């Protein structure tokens, strides 16, 4: 049974919402006041024993700072594989819906998409391992109070690059890799190699010079120079170990996530990394060149490329680049992406212009929550679809999506220097001509696709760009021969 736990927050916005209209065989909707309250959820669980769960609430990723981790762990402990938990972000509705009927139909669409995702995501094999018990501190805490706080709360730590104590001299960070609760940081000091192992990495960016930040950012493959806020790298479930901390409050928030992991006896997690089908691999080496995380290598003896799961961040760049489709990802798999684009056909029945906004899960999708917080609306033509990285959208998916009934596609990606996948945005922009020729071959005007880079500091600019594009599409007269002129 699919169980959807929906936040009653939505009733504040659309008071005549009738949730029961969304119920059907195999789908039960339960509105609750506080869907992130573990006790409330546990109670529902004991009673309903569902196979799959969809949590519908505003800004589920934002909640991941604290409650999201606790809640998904609780649901897992009730026997549900994490692959069978999906989220609906009600903010998508708040920023686009014009009235209650529209909101209801958008919620219905989101439900179908979430169910489609659950049906097409394999049950993950879970990894269980003991966590490291210490934190790795990188840089110098802003004042002694930080370390006192850690000691008072019995959090063990080891410091690297502490410029104040003089330990930072001659340090060169080489590599950071691993999984939730179990990371290693390799560095060199006075030409001798050293390694720290820890549950998580807490960085004090204010204590680092711009040069050090760049060096650390490169080694960690983390765009630190531009991240001015508390930024846990927790958008990927198995890589939630990097925290940028500037204030004691931010450290306290980070510890809410980190400490239960350090204190636990074991970590149960799904380690997502790219997969290789050796029977398809032609050893061309494209994946090795494409991977910015040094996770891909060629094994000439076994006649296949291989992936190092400790380094792979499941960005999907190699999946898009592989010419023989030997690469794939467990979630956002090739078959899921194809099926998803085709299934959009069922969601494009409403009148008016339809603009599909495919948003990368970093800066692109951050705009949705930002706009909802600021109570800024975007054109009701927009329908949002979150993907891991814009570069994951292969060129042939564009005609499939437009033939499904959309008038245009906007792909929101990170501004180049802010891309979490380092070259995801660049790769996508480089492929623009390929997209255009695929569209032309399918008798689609190239103007129906726009790639829109978004800076995390300029999220406010997104509505104007989308609204203008929606207006353009509404007034676009397709020339004879275009599939849109039929
Ligand atoms: S890009 Fe594909 S075919 Fe080429 S080596 Fe990598 S997995 Fe094999
Ligand atoms: S998914 Fe990304 S990190 Fe993993 S092997 Fe492919 S390109 Fe490298």
Structural account:
Mean pLDDT is 82; it is low at 226-238. The longest helix has 20 residues, at 100-119. The radius of gyration is 23 Å and the shape is globular. It has 17 helices and 21 strands. It has 486 residues and is an alpha/beta fold. The strands form seven sheets. The protein has a four-stranded parallel β-sheet, with helices on both faces. The protein has helices at 9-13, 38-48, 60-63, 67-77, 91-96, 100-119, 144-152, 210-220, 248-263, 286-290, 317-321, 334-343, 363-373, 397-403, 424-430, 432-441, 462-474; strands at 2-7, 27-32, 52-57, 85-89, 127-129, 134-138, 156-160, 171-179, 182-189, 192-198, 200-203, 242-244, 267-269, 275-276, 296-299, 304-307, 327-328, 355-360, 382-387, 408-414, 449-454. The protein has four domains: 1-126, 3-Layer(aba) Sandwich (Rossmann fold), CATH 3.40.50; 129-269, FAD/NAD(P)-binding domain; 275-328, 2-Layer Sandwich (Alpha-Beta Plaits); 332-486, 3-Layer(aba) Sandwich (Rossmann fold), CATH 3.40.50. One iron/sulfur cluster binds at residues 276, 281-287, 305, 322, 324, 326-327.
């Amino acid at each position: 049974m699919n169980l959807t736990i929906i936040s009653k927050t939505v009733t504040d916005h659309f008071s005549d919402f009738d949730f029961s209209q969304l119920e059907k065989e195999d789908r039960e909707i339960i509105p609750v006041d506080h869907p992130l309250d573990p006790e409330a959820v546990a109670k529902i669980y004991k009673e309903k024993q569902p196979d799959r769960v969809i949590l519908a609430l505003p800004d589920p990723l934002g909640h991941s700072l604290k409650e999201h981790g606790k809640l998904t762990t609780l649901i897992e402990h009730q026997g549900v594989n994490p692959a069978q938990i999906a989220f609906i972000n009600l903010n998508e509705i708040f920023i686009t819906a014009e009235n209650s009927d529209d909101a209801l139909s958008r919620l219905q669409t989101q439900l179908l998409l979430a169910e489609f995702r659950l049906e097409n995501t394999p049950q993950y094999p879970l990894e269980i391992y003991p966590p490291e018990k210490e934190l790795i501190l990188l840089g110098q805490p802003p004042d002694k109070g930080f370390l006192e706080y850690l000691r008072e709360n019995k959090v063990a730590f080891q410091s690297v690059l502490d410029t104040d104590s003089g330990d930072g001299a001659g340090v060169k960070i080489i590599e950071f890799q691993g999984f939730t609760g179990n990371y290693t940081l390799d560095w060199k000091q006075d030409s001798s190699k050293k390694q720290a192992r820890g549950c998580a990495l807490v960085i004090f960016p204010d204590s680092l010079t711009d040069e050090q930040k760049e060096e650390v950012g490169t080694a960690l493959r983390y765009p630190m120079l531009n991240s001015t806020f508390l930024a846990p790298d927790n958008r990927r479930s198995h890589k939630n170990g990097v925290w940028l901390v500037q204030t004691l409050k931010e450290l306290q928030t980070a510890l809410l996530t980190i400490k239960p992991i350090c204190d636990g006896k074991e970590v149960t997690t799904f380690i997502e990394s790219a997969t290789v089908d050796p029977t398809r691999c032609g050893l061309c080496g494209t994946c090795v060149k494409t991977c910015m995380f040094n996770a891909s290598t060629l094994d000439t003896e076994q006649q296949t490329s291989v992936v190092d799961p400790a380094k792979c961040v499941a960005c999907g760049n190699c999946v898009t680049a592989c010419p023989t489709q030997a690469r794939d990802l467990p979630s956002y798999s090739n078959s899921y992406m194809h099926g998803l684009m085709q299934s959009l056909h069922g969601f494009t029945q409403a009148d008016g212009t339809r603009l599909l906004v495919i948003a990368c899960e970093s800066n692109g999708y951050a705009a949705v929550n930002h706009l909802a917080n600021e109570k800024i609306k975007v054109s009701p033509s927009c329908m949002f679809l979150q993907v891991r990285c814009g570069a994951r959208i292969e060129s042939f998916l564009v005609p499939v999506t437009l033939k499904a009934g959309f008038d245009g596609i906007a792909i929101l990606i990170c501004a180049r220097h802010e891309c979490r996948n380092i070259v995801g945005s660049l790769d996508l922009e480089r492929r623009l001509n390929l997209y255009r020729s695929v569209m032309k071959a399918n008798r689609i005007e190239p103007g129906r696709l726009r790639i829109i880079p978004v800076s995390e500091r300029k999220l406010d600019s997104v509505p104007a760009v989308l609204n203008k594009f929606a207006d353009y599409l509404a007034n676009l007269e397709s020339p004879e021969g275009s599939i849109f002129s039929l």
